[in-house]
């Protein structure tokens, strides 16, 4: 499930109807492209962020790939291709400043 603000999509010139939005965000790379919405609106695509968060977005992206911090044998997977790919993706979001740097459970996070 993806939650998004229709008004922000409309402000950026994107379609806002759920059936039209779904194909725009079918993959994480698609979501990165839609993240450029910040350039048009000044609004961020994710409240999970950089230094002010608990890195839950890393876990979310890893879990989606059926991966985690350790494998089934209990070995750390931080150097695995999935972990590296996840960190590279997050780095791309951070370098483009597409993530809101706000502590979780505060007004800015919502």
UniProtKB/TrEMBL annotation:
InterPro entries: Bact_solute-bd_prot1, SBP. Pfam families: SBP_bac_1. PANTHER family: ARABINOSE-BINDING PROTEIN-RELATED, DIACETYLCHITOBIOSE BINDING PROTEIN DASA. This is Uncharacterized protein.
């Amino acid at each position: 499930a993806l939650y998004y603000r229709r008004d922000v999509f409309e402000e950026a010139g994107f379609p806002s109807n759920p059936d039209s939005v779904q194909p725009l965000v079918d993959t994480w790379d698609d979501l990165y492209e839609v993240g450029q919405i910040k350039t048009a609106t000044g609004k961020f695509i994710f409240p999970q962020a950089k230094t002010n968060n608990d890195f839950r977005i890393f876990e979310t992206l890893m879990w989606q790939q059926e991966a985690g911090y350790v494998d089934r044998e209990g070995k750390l997977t931080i150097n695995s291709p999935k972990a590296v790919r996840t960190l590279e993706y997050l780095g791309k979001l951070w370098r483009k400043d597409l993530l809101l740097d706000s502590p979780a459970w505060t007004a800015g996070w919502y």
